[in-house]
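re: ur msg from earlier - yeah i can do the 6-O-phosphono-beta-D-fructofuranose complex, just paste it... oh wait u already did. ok heres what im feeding in:
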Amino acid sequence: MAFFEKNRAISWQSLQKSGILVSILSSKNIKNMTPTLTTLSEWDILQDHKKTISHQRMQDWFLDNPHRFEKFSLKFNELMLDYSKNYITGQTLSHLIALANAVHLPQKIEQLFTGGEVNSTEKRPALHTALRDRQQTSLLVGQTNVMPDIHATLDHMREFSDKIRNQTWRGATGKPIQDIVNIGIGGSHLGPLMTTRALSEFAMPELNCHFISNIDSAHIHEVLTLIDPETTLFIISSKSFSTLETITNAATIKAWLQTKLPTSNLEHHMVAITAAKEKAIAFGIPEQQIFNLWNWVGGRYSIWSAIGLPLAIMIGMDHFTNFLDGAYAMDQHFRHSEFAHNMPVIMALLDIWYSNFFDVKAHAIIPYSHALTYFRAHLQQLDMESNGKHVAHHGEALPYQTGAIIWGEQGCNGQHAFHQLFHQGQHIIPIDFILVGKSQHAFDQQHQDILVASGLSQAQALMCGKSFLDAKQELLQEGYSAEEADFLAKHKSVPGNRPSNILFLDQITPYNVGALIALYEHKTFVQGAIWNINSFDQWGVELGKQLLPYILADLRDTEIKSHHDASTQGLINHYRAIRKNS
Ligand code: F6P
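and the outut:
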């Protein structure tokens, strides 16, 4: 049974018929830009190719080619990608690579690494790769060499994290720091949260790390019950130092500290990481306790900068530099490997294939690793904030789908919750199963074996499925009548032919986690580059921020001053009534 029969990809033809295409193509902007994806012959070839393979089954391809696994798997250091259980042949890959070349992907990758203005709306580069290029001494942004500042910030992080760890940094009452609390949101939260959890086995046992991100005061209260103000360091993480949630939470914490400590001098308990130094100083953070950040680091790409300070404190700067080195190694692999052997490129092309030619809308991330609990959350921001876009670089409306819905859960939990839809539902959802070879605890081999077997059997079941005849046969053997077996087999058969990747890490280490995150960063970049969108801005988030002050005022003030749609107004009235009685 074929699962990709209908080509619902893009109604480009309908655009052509309506004449919209002609006007888009003849607009002045079309000159000197990446060719519109859907006008390329490589695009048409892929559409035709899809028709020829959409009635085929992956299982047959494995039977035809006993080396399919070797052909469609890659190994890079301690990371292996098996992408053989995808709806591809060798020809598919060649066609996809041709598409990537046709949109000048090699040049775009060079642009990224060399400080090109990849963030066109904000007119700046995205230089997260420079943050992990530890041997580099020179990289110009405009007239400024950014490398000395990067090295100086790493030195600052080392000096400070060492002081916390060796207890020479003391709280206001002379006690050593035991708890670190990161106050930040989005990229100033998810990267540190995900990595400190992932690498907790490398953390100093005497230290605990907590996170306050939500403006819901319950989040603050929860953390405050766990800490002692005399032994706690708060890190205010905000590139802009103006994010409402973060600044409100930081002000609340500052006021709380003032009531709890026998001194008004809070400088032993608060540091900041920001690109807006003057705002942090105005907030009351001493200048030498402000860690530099730069505009050319996107929030979702900032874990490699001083935003990684909670991680550096927890695991120590030597491990943190291993983490950077793992990402750097992935950068080199990405920058220099040919596309057919390039992990981020292959993963991106697979998603382009599903998204643009099979109308697939979602992508699931299922790590069979407790350490990677927050990896999916981090990827959600990375991918969805980067590639959830509706216009191309030059502002033209896109006639094709971009940005998948990223979701998931750690295995095995997801298996007992929503995998049913993967197996028998009607959506095709490509999945990345992330497996880890070595358990972090020596006594846990039995658990690890079950964990790995679970991930592998899910991927196998998705591909192989169970035919009606096999299901019926099983039922007959179990003693069901032919009539009952006929009925039940319809429910018990599993279609199969559903795609998944297996990413296999030998073990969880700072180096490997660094490489894993960088892999997905580059995958996201490649997709954006092929779609010709700006993966480094996030204007959609701004609208909500603009509306909020008017609604906030109308929730609080005696008079309603702004005009709202009827739904919002009704809800404001509802809240005001509750607020009045509380
Ligand atoms: O609102 C979205 C966003 O700008 C993210 O891109 C960013 O990671 C987050 O807010 C936090 O921003 P900041 O670090 O400036 O507080």
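cool cool. Residues 37-102+337-464+499-531 form a domain with the Rossmann fold fold (CATH 3.40.50.10490). ping me if u need the other ligands too
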